Known about the structure:
- The chain is of the alpha+beta class and 461 residues long.
- Helix content is 37%, strand content 20%.
- Strands 14-11-13-12-16-17-15 form a seven-stranded antiparallel beta sheet, sandwiched between helices. It has a four-stranded mixed beta sheet with strand order 1-2-4-3.
- The model is unreliable at 457-461 (pLDDT under 50).
- Flavin-adenine dinucleotide binds at residues 33, 68-76, 79-80, 91, 111, 133-135, 138-140, 142-144, 146-147, 149-152, 200-201, 205-206, 322, 413-414, 417, 450, 453.
Amino acid sequence: MKSAQVVTELTAIVGSGNVLTQSADRDPFERDWTGRYVGATPAVVLPGSTEEVSTVLAFCNQHLVSVVPQGGNTGQVGGSVPLSGEIVLSLRRLKRIDSVNDDVPSVIVGAGVTLDEVLELANQHGLTFGVDLSPKEDATVGGMIATNAGGLRFLRYGSMRNQLLGIEAVLADGTVISHLRGLPKDNSGYDLPSLFCGSEGTLGVITAASIKLVPQQPLHAVALVGLESFNDALATVRLLRATGMLESAEVILPAGVDLVADFLQASPPFNGAKVYLVVELAGISQVTKTLEKELRAQQKQFVLASDSKEREELWRWRRTHSKAISWHCHREGYSAPQKYDVSIPLQNTVPFLHEIEEACSGLNTAKVIVFGHIGDGNLHINVLGTFDQAFSNRIDETVLQTTIDYGGSISAEHGIGTSKSRYLPQYRTPEELRLFDTLKCALDPHRILNPNVLHVNGANQ
Length: 461
Ligand SMILES: Cc1cc2nc3c(=O)[nH]c(=O)nc-3n(C[C@H](O)[C@H](O)[C@H](O)COP(=O)(O)OP(=O)(O)OC[C@H]3O[C@@H](n4cnc5c(N)ncnc54)[C@H](O)[C@@H]3O)c2cc1C
């Protein structure tokens, strides 16, 4: 079927105001947040209900029209943009918000509800949400489930998978799978939220979910800590974990702090550390005192904040890293940064980082900026410089193979997307990939959903 006819049919389903075909309107949906992936689509389709999602997918399946589901388009692995001319199915209009269940703190929300909206709703009930990421205004519940997002509070609450009580998703042929009872205990067969969580839009389109909310911790304290070495940082996190109040433990390094200082036109509270930690403790009593006591006992250089504005001031040294890196690359005329989100066994992080730095300097890259969720062994490695495709592939191979050699995972929280698709067979066994493919064939036999993502298709053939 010709593109124009597809657009006409889709317009009949969702209404003319909800199909974007003009280049200027399509543009923000065609490029990803990193700037590394830019595609093209005949149309961005914005359904307003689960029924419309179902009708759109049934039509696309029947006519073999490929579809890329998209939420807030903040993904980091090129999974949310149309790289092969797919239709973009934007779920942003799915804004259902049911009443909060105060007995089992939870709520049913539509896939297009943003993290900010969830946090605001939870706050009105004296609750909060376990997953916290920087792009709160844009990241959607659907996208966060599809990528099994981790974030800054993983240490305490786990990832999106741990927040799910139920899910509603539409399969490629338009079948609606709805299990939204939201029971905290429910062993009635396969766990469907887990199946769709982390599937990156390849098995179905998530339209709603029942998500847990958690009690707010009344007291919080944040510290920016200066340390002598990475091992020192690991030891500090170990001690703070033992308080039972550790909510976040993030590592940043001087090269990243310098970029953030440049970007914010601000000076860090102190200089001269070889490694920095941003740590947050939260609880019902003695929070600031405990943090101060622990850090003083270890004779660390640190700045402490318990007031919310001052806490945010300290957090921005970590939260602004991704933006500062993109800004710096743009200013220097570099390529979009090569981003890796790896998971490394904690005991291997020091030799791993040493090897990555050596390998990247051997490749003559301009800069390597490392930061991340040190408490989970999750490091974000950003390689900066000017790369052609072949060079870019060499960096990918070097970083990802080193990760595997050190017993790590090639994706801790961002997913595989398109950026790491071809490296999946190096990390998962042929047997695992065959099972992935079996699931894909069962749920999306014509492979219309996110055909470039995960590349289950053909990865094991
Ligand atoms: C500054 C910055 C900081 C970040 N920090 C973190 C972090 O700490 N931890 C972390 O885990 N991530 C982080 N991310 C990555 C990103 O925010 C998350 O992956 C987020 O979960 C993506 O949500 P989204 O709505 O933007 O999804 P999108 O980017 O639109 O999509 C991501 C993937 O999910 C699929 N998808 C989207 N919606 C649906 C749906 N309804 N049904 C099926 N598939 C769907 C897409 O096809 C794509 O494959 C960060 C990103 C930025 C820009």
